[in-house]
Design goal:
mainly beta, Immunoglobulin-like, 17 strands, 12-stranded mixed sheet, 3-stranded antiparallel sheet
Protein backbone atom coordinates (compact mmCIF):
# COMPACT_ATOMS: atom_id res chain seq x y z
CA UNK A 1 0.00 0.00 0.00
CA UNK A 2 1.13 3.57 -0.55
CA UNK A 3 1.79 4.43 3.09
CA UNK A 4 3.96 1.38 3.63
CA UNK A 5 5.81 2.01 0.37
CA UNK A 6 6.58 5.60 1.39
CA UNK A 7 7.69 4.42 4.82
CA UNK A 8 10.01 1.87 3.24
CA UNK A 9 11.61 4.70 1.24
CA UNK A 10 12.49 6.46 4.50
CA UNK A 11 13.53 3.35 6.42
CA UNK A 12 15.53 1.96 3.53
CA UNK A 13 17.09 5.25 2.48
CA UNK A 14 19.81 5.02 5.10
CA UNK A 15 20.97 1.79 3.48
CA UNK A 16 21.54 3.52 0.15
CA UNK A 17 23.17 6.81 1.20
CA UNK A 18 26.70 7.32 -0.02
CA UNK A 19 29.26 10.07 -0.34
CA UNK A 20 31.01 11.31 -3.44
CA UNK A 21 34.48 10.16 -2.41
CA UNK A 22 36.66 8.20 -4.78
CA UNK A 23 35.74 4.86 -3.19
CA UNK A 24 32.11 4.24 -4.03
CA UNK A 25 30.19 2.41 -1.28
CA UNK A 26 26.51 1.67 -1.87
CA UNK A 27 25.93 1.07 1.86
CA UNK A 28 27.16 3.11 4.84
CA UNK A 29 27.63 2.00 8.42
CA UNK A 30 24.17 1.33 9.88
CA UNK A 31 22.81 3.68 12.52
CA UNK A 32 19.37 3.05 14.00
CA UNK A 33 17.03 6.01 13.68
CA UNK A 34 13.37 6.63 14.36
CA UNK A 35 10.98 7.64 11.59
CA UNK A 36 7.81 9.74 11.68
CA UNK A 37 5.60 10.28 8.63
CA UNK A 38 2.33 12.24 8.54
CA UNK A 39 0.51 14.58 6.17
CA UNK A 40 -2.32 17.04 6.75
CA UNK A 41 -4.75 18.50 4.20
CA UNK A 42 -5.82 22.05 4.93
CA UNK A 43 -9.21 23.49 4.02
CA UNK A 44 -11.61 26.27 4.91
CA UNK A 45 -14.73 25.59 6.96
CA UNK A 46 -14.40 21.84 6.62
CA UNK A 47 -15.64 19.36 9.23
CA UNK A 48 -13.11 17.54 11.44
CA UNK A 49 -10.84 15.30 9.39
CA UNK A 50 -9.17 11.96 9.99
CA UNK A 51 -5.39 12.15 10.21
CA UNK A 52 -2.99 9.20 10.08
CA UNK A 53 0.63 8.92 11.17
CA UNK A 54 3.24 6.19 10.82
CA UNK A 55 6.04 5.51 13.29
CA UNK A 56 8.93 3.14 12.64
CA UNK A 57 12.64 2.59 13.09
CA UNK A 58 15.26 2.07 10.43
CA UNK A 59 16.56 -1.43 9.85
CA UNK A 60 19.61 -3.19 8.48
CA UNK A 61 19.81 -6.18 6.17
CA UNK A 62 22.49 -8.48 4.88
CA UNK A 63 23.35 -7.33 1.40
CA UNK A 64 21.89 -4.34 -0.41
CA UNK A 65 18.19 -5.14 -0.80
CA UNK A 66 16.00 -3.35 1.83
CA UNK A 67 13.01 -5.47 0.82
CA UNK A 68 14.77 -8.51 2.32
CA UNK A 69 13.77 -7.30 5.81
CA UNK A 70 10.84 -9.24 7.33
CA UNK A 71 10.83 -7.72 10.82
CA UNK A 72 8.08 -5.10 11.00
CA UNK A 73 9.76 -1.73 11.76
CA UNK A 74 6.52 -0.13 13.02
CA UNK A 75 6.58 1.27 16.57
CA UNK A 76 3.63 0.73 18.89
CA UNK A 77 2.56 2.18 22.28
CA UNK A 78 3.62 5.75 21.40
CA UNK A 79 1.80 8.96 22.40
CA UNK A 80 1.08 10.98 19.23
CA UNK A 81 -0.50 14.44 19.52
CA UNK A 82 -1.49 17.12 17.00
CA UNK A 83 -1.68 20.78 18.07
CA UNK A 84 -3.21 23.67 16.14
CA UNK A 85 -3.17 26.91 18.14
CA UNK A 86 -4.79 26.01 21.49
CA UNK A 87 -6.42 22.86 20.14
CA UNK A 88 -4.75 19.52 20.80
CA UNK A 89 -5.86 16.09 19.64
CA UNK A 90 -4.42 12.64 20.30
CA UNK A 91 -4.00 9.99 17.61
CA UNK A 92 -4.72 6.48 18.83
CA UNK A 93 -2.89 3.33 17.84
CA UNK A 94 -4.88 1.34 15.32
CA UNK A 95 -4.51 -1.72 13.11
CA UNK A 96 -5.66 -2.42 9.59
CA UNK A 97 -5.36 -5.28 7.14
CA UNK A 98 -2.11 -5.15 5.19
CA UNK A 99 -2.24 -6.19 1.55
CA UNK A 100 1.53 -6.76 1.69
CA UNK A 101 1.06 -9.50 4.30
CA UNK A 102 3.82 -11.78 3.01
CA UNK A 103 6.49 -9.43 4.35
CA UNK A 104 5.25 -8.10 7.69
CA UNK A 105 2.15 -10.16 8.43
CA UNK A 106 -1.56 -9.44 7.93
CA UNK A 107 -1.74 -6.31 10.12
CA UNK A 108 -0.26 -2.82 9.73
CA UNK A 109 0.13 -0.64 12.84
CA UNK A 110 -0.44 3.08 12.57
CA UNK A 111 -1.87 6.04 14.50
CA UNK A 112 -5.12 7.76 13.61
CA UNK A 113 -7.70 10.17 14.99
CA UNK A 114 -10.17 12.94 14.22
CA UNK A 115 -8.71 16.44 14.36
CA UNK A 116 -10.09 19.89 13.66
CA UNK A 117 -9.21 20.62 10.05
CA UNK A 118 -6.60 23.41 10.08
CA UNK A 119 -7.24 26.56 8.09
CA UNK A 120 -4.83 28.06 5.56
CA UNK A 121 -1.70 29.72 7.08
CA UNK A 122 -2.19 27.95 10.42
CA UNK A 123 0.82 26.37 12.11
CA UNK A 124 0.37 22.68 12.95
CA UNK A 125 2.60 20.76 15.36
CA UNK A 126 2.99 17.00 15.69
CA UNK A 127 4.70 15.23 18.58
CA UNK A 128 5.35 11.51 19.08
CA UNK A 129 6.67 10.26 22.43
CA UNK A 130 8.06 6.76 21.99
CA UNK A 131 7.97 4.05 24.69
CA UNK A 132 11.72 4.58 25.34
CA UNK A 133 11.14 8.28 26.09
CA UNK A 134 12.44 9.55 22.73
CA UNK A 135 10.38 12.43 21.29
CA UNK A 136 9.96 13.08 17.57
CA UNK A 137 8.48 16.45 16.61
CA UNK A 138 7.81 18.56 13.52
CA UNK A 139 5.65 21.39 12.28
CA UNK A 140 4.07 22.63 9.07
CA UNK A 141 2.29 25.76 7.87
CA UNK A 142 -0.82 25.14 5.78
CA UNK A 143 -0.53 26.79 2.32
CA UNK A 144 -2.86 29.70 1.58
CA UNK A 145 -5.49 29.67 -1.19
CA UNK A 146 -4.41 30.86 -4.64
CA UNK A 147 -7.17 32.29 -6.86
CA UNK A 148 -6.96 30.97 -10.41
CA UNK A 149 -6.67 33.53 -13.23
CA UNK A 150 -7.88 32.76 -16.76
CA UNK A 151 -5.98 34.08 -19.78
CA UNK A 152 -9.27 34.82 -21.51
CA UNK A 153 -12.71 35.61 -20.11
CA UNK A 154 -15.09 33.52 -22.16
CA UNK A 155 -18.32 35.59 -22.23
CA UNK A 156 -20.61 32.59 -22.88
CA UNK A 157 -18.57 29.80 -21.34
CA UNK A 158 -15.35 28.05 -22.27
CA UNK A 159 -15.11 27.17 -25.96
CA UNK A 160 -12.41 26.39 -28.51
CA UNK A 161 -14.45 27.70 -31.39
CA UNK A 162 -16.34 31.00 -31.92
CA UNK A 163 -15.83 34.46 -30.43
CA UNK A 164 -12.09 34.11 -29.86
CA UNK A 165 -9.44 36.71 -30.72
CA UNK A 166 -7.30 35.99 -33.77
CA UNK A 167 -4.28 33.85 -32.99
CA UNK A 168 -5.69 32.41 -29.74
CA UNK A 169 -5.16 28.63 -29.84
CA UNK A 170 -4.74 27.77 -26.17
CA UNK A 171 -6.07 28.50 -22.68
CA UNK A 172 -3.69 29.42 -19.85
CA UNK A 173 -4.66 29.18 -16.18
CA UNK A 174 -2.37 30.71 -13.57
CA UNK A 175 -2.34 30.80 -9.77
CA UNK A 176 0.36 33.23 -8.53
CA UNK A 177 -1.49 34.31 -5.38
CA UNK A 178 -0.25 36.76 -2.73
CA UNK A 179 2.17 34.39 -0.95
CA UNK A 180 5.63 33.65 -2.33
CA UNK A 181 5.30 30.33 -4.20
CA UNK A 182 9.05 29.72 -4.59
CA UNK A 183 10.03 26.22 -3.59
CA UNK A 184 6.45 24.90 -3.53
CA UNK A 185 5.47 22.00 -5.77
CA UNK A 186 2.12 22.20 -7.58
CA UNK A 187 0.00 19.50 -9.21
CA UNK A 188 -2.42 21.09 -11.73
CA UNK A 189 -5.24 19.19 -13.42
CA UNK A 190 -8.11 20.13 -15.74
CA UNK A 191 -11.11 17.80 -15.96
CA UNK A 192 -14.33 17.75 -17.96
CA UNK A 193 -17.30 16.81 -15.79
CA UNK A 194 -20.05 14.77 -17.41
CA UNK A 195 -22.96 12.46 -16.73
CA UNK A 196 -24.12 9.42 -18.67
CA UNK A 197 -27.57 7.87 -18.75
CA UNK A 198 -27.32 4.15 -18.01
CA UNK A 199 -30.70 2.35 -17.81
CA UNK A 200 -32.46 5.58 -16.74
CA UNK A 201 -29.80 6.23 -14.08
CA UNK A 202 -27.43 9.21 -14.35
CA UNK A 203 -23.83 8.13 -13.72
CA UNK A 204 -21.29 10.94 -13.23
CA UNK A 205 -17.72 10.87 -14.47
CA UNK A 206 -14.78 12.99 -15.51
CA UNK A 207 -12.14 13.12 -18.26
CA UNK A 208 -8.66 14.59 -17.71
CA UNK A 209 -7.59 17.14 -20.31
CA UNK A 210 -4.04 16.95 -21.73
CA UNK A 211 -1.98 20.10 -22.21
CA UNK A 212 -0.92 19.18 -25.74
CA UNK A 213 0.04 16.31 -28.01
CA UNK A 214 3.70 15.43 -28.64
CA UNK A 215 4.20 14.95 -32.33
CA UNK A 216 0.47 15.33 -32.72
CA UNK A 217 -0.01 11.83 -31.27
CA UNK A 218 1.04 11.36 -27.63
CA UNK A 219 -1.08 13.17 -25.05
CA UNK A 220 0.99 15.20 -22.55
CA UNK A 221 -0.76 15.76 -19.22
CA UNK A 222 0.20 18.21 -16.46
CA UNK A 223 2.62 16.89 -13.88
CA UNK A 224 4.39 18.22 -10.79
CA UNK A 225 5.84 21.67 -11.33
CA UNK A 226 7.33 24.72 -9.60
CA UNK A 227 5.62 26.98 -12.14
CA UNK A 228 2.39 28.84 -11.36
CA UNK A 229 0.64 28.47 -14.70
CA UNK A 230 -0.50 25.75 -17.06
CA UNK A 231 -1.50 26.01 -20.74
CA UNK A 232 -3.96 23.74 -22.56
CA UNK A 233 -4.04 23.67 -26.37
CA UNK A 234 -7.53 23.94 -27.83
CA UNK A 235 -6.85 20.80 -29.88
CA UNK A 236 -6.22 18.92 -26.62
CA UNK A 237 -9.47 20.21 -25.11
CA UNK A 238 -11.39 19.13 -28.24
CA UNK A 239 -9.79 15.69 -28.02
CA UNK A 240 -10.82 15.29 -24.37
CA UNK A 241 -14.37 16.37 -25.21
CA UNK A 242 -14.56 13.68 -27.90
CA UNK A 243 -13.32 11.09 -25.40
CA UNK A 244 -16.30 11.71 -23.11
CA UNK A 245 -18.41 9.40 -25.27
CA UNK A 246 -15.54 7.44 -26.80
CA UNK A 247 -16.90 5.35 -29.66
CA UNK A 248 -20.49 5.43 -28.40
CA UNK A 249 -22.71 6.66 -31.28
CA UNK A 250 -25.50 7.66 -28.85
CA UNK A 251 -24.01 11.03 -27.93
CA UNK A 252 -27.24 12.33 -26.42
CA UNK A 253 -26.81 9.94 -23.49
CA UNK A 254 -24.03 12.22 -22.27
CA UNK A 255 -24.56 15.49 -20.44
CA UNK A 256 -21.72 18.02 -20.21
CA UNK A 257 -21.70 21.58 -18.93
CA UNK A 258 -18.48 22.43 -17.03
CA UNK A 259 -14.79 21.87 -16.45
CA UNK A 260 -12.98 22.00 -13.13
CA UNK A 261 -9.39 23.15 -12.72
CA UNK A 262 -7.61 21.86 -9.63
CA UNK A 263 -4.19 22.79 -8.24
CA UNK A 264 -2.83 20.79 -5.31
CA UNK A 265 -0.07 22.74 -3.52
CA UNK A 266 2.54 21.22 -1.19
CA UNK A 267 4.07 23.21 1.64
CA UNK A 268 7.83 23.87 1.71
CA UNK A 269 8.73 20.74 3.67
CA UNK A 270 6.59 18.37 1.64
CA UNK A 271 7.87 19.96 -1.58
CA UNK A 272 11.48 19.37 -0.55
CA UNK A 273 10.68 15.79 0.41
CA UNK A 274 8.92 15.17 -2.91
CA UNK A 275 11.83 16.68 -4.82
CA UNK A 276 14.40 14.63 -2.90
CA UNK A 277 12.76 11.35 -3.94
CA UNK A 278 11.94 12.47 -7.49
CA UNK A 279 15.28 13.73 -8.81
CA UNK A 280 14.43 17.35 -7.98
CA UNK A 281 11.68 17.13 -10.62
CA UNK A 282 14.33 16.48 -13.26
CA UNK A 283 13.84 13.20 -15.12
CA UNK A 284 17.52 13.18 -16.14
CA UNK A 285 18.96 13.52 -12.59
CA UNK A 286 20.39 10.60 -10.65
CA UNK A 287 21.10 11.63 -7.05
CA UNK A 288 23.37 9.30 -5.09
CA UNK A 289 24.79 11.94 -2.73
CA UNK A 290 21.54 13.58 -1.58
CA UNK A 291 19.58 11.90 1.24
CA UNK A 292 15.80 11.91 1.48
CA UNK A 293 14.70 15.27 2.96
CA UNK A 294 13.59 15.23 6.60
CA UNK A 295 12.06 17.91 8.83
CA UNK A 296 11.53 15.75 11.94
CA UNK A 297 13.41 16.68 15.09
CA UNK A 298 14.68 13.76 17.19
CA UNK A 299 14.64 11.44 14.20
CA UNK A 300 13.98 11.44 10.48
CA UNK A 301 10.87 11.59 8.34
CA UNK A 302 8.41 14.08 6.96
CA UNK A 303 5.49 16.07 8.32
CA UNK A 304 3.97 18.23 5.62
CA UNK A 305 0.73 19.79 4.48
CA UNK A 306 -1.12 20.56 1.28
CA UNK A 307 -4.03 22.67 0.07
CA UNK A 308 -6.37 21.99 -2.83
CA UNK A 309 -7.39 24.97 -4.98
CA UNK A 310 -10.37 24.39 -7.29
CA UNK A 311 -12.19 26.55 -9.82
CA UNK A 312 -15.16 25.50 -11.96
CA UNK A 313 -15.87 27.01 -15.39
CA UNK A 314 -19.08 26.67 -17.39
CA UNK A 315 -18.71 25.44 -20.96
CA UNK A 316 -20.28 27.22 -23.92
CA UNK A 317 -23.68 25.76 -24.88
CA UNK A 318 -22.94 25.67 -28.62
CA UNK A 319 -19.54 24.09 -27.95
CA UNK A 320 -21.07 21.24 -25.93
CA UNK A 321 -23.92 20.53 -28.32
CA UNK A 322 -21.55 20.51 -31.32
CA UNK A 323 -20.30 17.15 -30.01
CA UNK A 324 -23.87 15.83 -29.83
CA UNK A 325 -23.98 16.02 -26.01
CA UNK A 326 -26.74 17.38 -23.81
CA UNK A 327 -25.95 20.62 -21.97
CA UNK A 328 -26.53 19.77 -18.33
Amino acid sequence: MKTRTALSVLCGAILLMSGCDQTFAPKTEFQEQYVLQAFVQGDVGKAPMTMNALLAKTYNVDGFDPSANTNDPAIDSALVTIRVNARQDTLKERHRADKDSLRYGPVQRYYSGRITTPSPSELVYISARLPNGRVLAAQTIIPVPRPVVSSYEFPHGVTTRANLPAGVHSWTLSWPGDADPSGHVFFPRLQILYSKTVDTVEVVGSISVPMTFAGGIKAIYPTSTFETSCTFDFAAIDSAMAQVSGGDPQKNKYGVHSVVFEVLEYDAALSKYYSSINGSLDQFSIRIDQPVFSNVGGGIGIFGSSLDNKDTYDLDYAFVTSFGYRYR
